[in-house]
Amino acid sequence: MSSRNRGGTASVFVFGLVFCSIGAGLLAFGPLADLAVWYAAKSWAPEQARVLDVQLLRRKVENSVIWEVQADYRYQHAGKTYYGARLGIDTGADNAGSWHQDKAYMLKWAKRNGHTITVYVNPKQPEQAIVDRSMRWQHMLGKGMLGAIFAVLGVFVLLWAWSDWSKRRRRLGSPSKLASNGLRTPIGDWQNPVNSKVKRGAWFFTLFAVVWSMLSLPMVLFLPEEIAAGNKAALVALIFPLVGLVLAIVAYRSILQWRRFGRTPLHMKPFPGAIGGECGGTISIPCKLSILGSPSVTLENIYCSASGRGDDRRTCENVVWQREGIAEYSAEGKLTQLQFKFTVPDNLSATEEESDSYHYWRLRVNAQFDKGEFNRDFELPLFRSKQRSSLAINNSAEHPELHNKWERELDVLLNIKRVKHGLYMYFPPFRNVFNNLLLAFIGVIFFTIGVVVHINDTPGVISLVFTLVGLVCFLTGIYLYLNSYDVIVGPRGIASRRKLLGFEIAKKKARADCVKGMFLKKTGSTSSGLTCFAIDALITDGSKIRLAEGLPGRGLAEKALDSLVVLSAYKKIDSE
User: Fold this and answer.
1) Nearest residue to 325 (alpha-carbon basis) of 383, 377, 397
2) Are 112 and 52 in contact, with CB atoms under 8 Å apart?
3) pLDDT digit string (tens) for 5-54?
4) CA within 20 to 30 Å of 148's CA: 40, 268, 320, 522, which one?
5) What are the domain boundaries of the chain?
6) At what angle do helices 239-261 and 198-228 cross, to 10 degrees?
7) Please, are residues 329 and 366 in contact by the beta-carbon 8 Å criterion?
8) Which tens digit of pLDDT belongs to each residue from 279-329?
9) Tell me, which fold does domain 264-395 have in CATH?
10) CA distance 356 to 351
């Protein structure tokens, strides 16, 4: 491990300790101290007291008003006279509810009419007394939330630092070791079997959901009072519990993935995987499962780079190479196994030590079992070697079922038909339903926030930004959801049309002699991590015509491109 990485992990660890200390202090001197007084006051003796003075202070802090009731009273206990000023468990000013106004009204009424009030006296220390010994639970939760957030964030940072330290120990940096293939490779502290990150992900999403929900709770508690007071802009706070709900669902699904299938080690054969040879292995699931469909595996070489410093630091991942395949399934006794094997080209980068710029290898596994969907990600060590896998299975990328699956998907995605002028492809509306409608829903949320802020007479720039962002997101999502696209590829040339609700909004044409060729273009990624591709035709004037879109995975996209090349007679080119 480099000294820079050790120093970074140590700094994060110290940062976590500081957050934990701050959170513990805020909790100890805030809600925990109030709870101690509340519990002790339950046994204090009631006495009658005379109100000497009372006043209700009103202070304006930024855009809100806080209240504080102050009073002095005189009481007797065990024949002695004492003076007190404490009114409730909590001391100080706040704007949570109407407790201060109610107490001020009651005390002023008692003083004006010469009535006594009941106070509760500590028998062991009679100079300690309190008027209201009930706990203001809503206010206590609000006070404790900040401390709890600091404490939970501190624990989260400490866990992350420990996880990062453990992860770095498995990284490169130690002397070369003799691998299972008999070759000396820099595998460092990598161990076989390799474990997935599902447990770490479950912890991450759970802690994140807890912190976010704790942060949102005070807003939810005080929202009814703010709305009743005419503060309509407070409705903006609803976005926080909505996000918390989404995070809770993600956390629940992550925990379910871990609890349902348990630890699923991957035994690599060979270990480490060979660049220029093969990468294979067996994933063991400690229960007998029935498979539904074909289990898919995807091996990826990823380039990760970081830029910027501090709050401006950004990490970007780019998939350099990707291969999809079908795993072999077997179940016997109380064990289910998935086996895979890929041939890896020798021109790819090996696993590198984590830094601001490095390569790593990842295996994604997805399978449908009778107990639910199985998803796992494994980070694998791969180095240059000619070693072959000892598994007696077919290459996962050449599995017959994979090509059958691609054929079925292409029939649906491309929907190629032969017409008089060549090949006709039609992409109907309502594609990619989840992502497009999610974008539209986010737009509705931002637009609503902008309108509410405007109604509350907040400065126009804030309202305008939220409204415009919401409108753009909503219209983009609806457009992507409702637009349709058709294209004709033939010996005379290429023609495309895009429509929205049946109305033509764009069209392009190119003669056959102006078409330089067809190529693949990355357009994003799917929810399962596969790179998404489109097929474009490059025209001699530099323009492009979209031929197909929404193709998940390079293997499927290349097969689609090869099919169009064969059927249309236009050539394939590497890039623009």
Assistant:
1) 397
2) no
3) 444 556 677 777 887 888 788 778 888 888 888 889 989 999 999 999 99
4) 40
5) 43-132, 190-261, 264-395, 417-568
6) 150
7) no
8) 999 999 998 888 888 899 999 999 988 776 655 667 788 888 989 999 999
9) Immunoglobulin-like (2.60.40)
10) 14
